[in-house]
Specification:
Layout lengths: L16 H16 L4 H30 L4 H26 L4 H21 L3 H28 L6 H34 L2 H17 L2 H6 L16 H28 L3 H9 L3 H29 L1 H21 L3 H17 L1 H10 L6 H30 L1 H23 L3 E4 L4 E4 L6
Helix pairs in contact: 2-6, 2-7, 3-5, 3-15, 4-5, 4-7, 5-15, 6-7, 6-11, 6-14, 9-15, 9-16, 11-12, 11-13, 12-13, 12-14, 12-16, 15-16
Length: about 450
């Protein structure tokens, strides 16, 4: 008797773009629903603090320029905030590994608002540098506590989405701060006849929004860190056993921070100096670039699932380099604007992925330490390069400075891939990439 062959399995037709988008959105919503109450409260507080952070990021340099400060002096003010973050990061990680997060978080929020107020109210360079350093130190406790807090209050199922969403909340805050603050400066300046008052009142409003973060932070229910997490120590034995890993994880981050510090704090001045744009137009540009960064950040988990955490970071950072070159050499505003938007979206896509990757390949007891090391490596290099960047721009202009940033970015990306290309492997069982800690040595 002739046996007929089994029927061939049905061939799935390729999905359309709209179907892929709907599937991706549904997948995101599914993972967002898994976020814990504590994580949601921290995200809301992050948004409110982020509004103030981005209002100052957009306006402070322009404000100081209208007060008559040079690029070099502005660079010292910018770098002093990074200095405060650098000095406090490791002690903050050690402290937060031993006590409850909430009281420290509430105190840091109040201090950050207070020192931001002093920055806005005083116009002496030495005081601006001092208060900027103190505001950076206060902000550090919120930043250092974030990643270990998310690790404690999430599961592997939604963790990558949570880290990307947390970064996305800061970008949403940037959009909110950018779209309104530039226009508000112009309106208040026109009403009062004093552009300085326009800057000051707008930054005061940003501070008020940041202080609202006390409400969600106050509702967080945080326990004392567990015994496993209460093991952060910088002993010789710890460094001997894990020092190679620490060196690798901070090296590329240090180089990226060095490159970013030369250029990123001064991009608002770049558009003002090269194209003579007003604060409200620059604010609109920052709104658009924050939106592009948000889109890039939210697409991070999708790309990471396909390419892995390490390769996603490398691919997107390399893809941003041509746009950096366009930004460097272009004197045609539409081209510079396009480069600004795409550079921001691509280069920042990998930022939360690097943090997530650092947490995943760390031991549980060193999450706070590794997060602090990532932060210190970034802020310490930013601290130095921001001061240098202002002087470089003052002497040689933007092209030389941006090209130096590109070189540092290429070296950093190459080092990151060289260090960690074997730290992940593709798993058919897991339908994606998994961490291979045995390949880290």
């Amino acid at each position: 008797m002739r046996i007929s062959p089994p029927p061939a399995p049905p061939v799935e037709s390729p999905k359309t773009l709209s179907e892929n988008i709907r599937h991706g959105a549904a997948d995101y919503l599914k993972h967002i629903k898994l976020f814990s109450r504590n994580a949601r409260l921290y995200l809301i507080g992050s948004f409110l603090m982020g509004v103030n952070f981005h209002v100052f990021q957009l306006l402070l340099n322009l404000y100081l320029r209208d007060l008559g400060f040079s690029e070099g002096q502005i660079g010292y003010v910018v770098s002093s905030r990074a200095a405060g973050m650098t000095l406090v990061a490791i002690p903050a990680a050690l402290l937060l590994s031993r006590i409850k997060l909430k009281p420290v978080l509430l105190t840091a929020c109040i201090m950050f608002g207070l020192f931001s107020y002093f920055i806005t109210s005083y116009q002496t360079l030495s005081l601006l540098i001092g208060f900027s350093l103190l505001s950076g130190a206060a902000f550090t406790f919120y930043r250092v506590g974030a990643a270990p807090f998310y690790m404690r209050n999430s599961t592997p199922n939604e963790r990558t989405h949570l880290f990307s969403f947390a970064f996305g909340m800061m970008l949403l805050a940037g959009m909110a701060g950018s779209i309104g603050s530039g226009r508000m400066v112009t309106l208040i300046g026109d009403m009062t006849g004093d552009i300085i008052l326009g800057y000051q009142y707008t930054m005061y409003l940003g501070i008020a929004v940041a202080l609202l973060a006390l409400l969600p932070f106050g509702l967080i229910k945080s326990a004392r860190p567990s015994r496993d997490e209460n093991r952060i120590a910088l002993t010789w034995g710890q460094l001997k056993r894990r020092g190679g890993f620490y060196l690798k994880i901070v090296t590329s981050n240090f180089l990226i921070g060095a490159g970013a510090g030369l250029t990123i704090p001064f991009l608002n001045l770049y558009f003002r100096d090269r194209f003579n744009l007003s604060p409200d137009t620059i604010g609109l540009y920052y709104f658009v670039v924050q939106f592009s960064m948000l889109v890039g950040t939210l697409s991070g988990p999708v790309l990471a699932k396909k390419f892995g955490l390490v390769r996603t970071v490398v691919i997107t950072q390399i893809a941003s380099m041509p746009f950096m070159l366009m930004l460097s050499y272009s004197f045609y505003l539409p081209l510079a604007f396009v480069a600004f938007v795409f550079r921001g979206g691509l280069m920042n896509l990998g930022a939360p992925i690097v943090t997530n990757f650092g947490m995943e390949i760390s031991e549980k007891g060193e999450h706070g330490l590794v997060n602090a090391l990532l932060m210190v490596s970034w802020t310490s290099s930013w601290m130095v390069s921001a001061a240098i960047g202002g002087s470089l721009i003052e002497k040689y202009g933007y092209t030389v400075t941006i090209n130096t940033t590109i070189i540092l970015y290429v070296i950093a990306t190459t080092a990151f891939y060289g260090f960690f290309r074997k730290a992940e492997r593709k798993s058919e069982e897991a339908c994606g990439w998994i961490i291979a800690r045995e390949n880290l040595s």
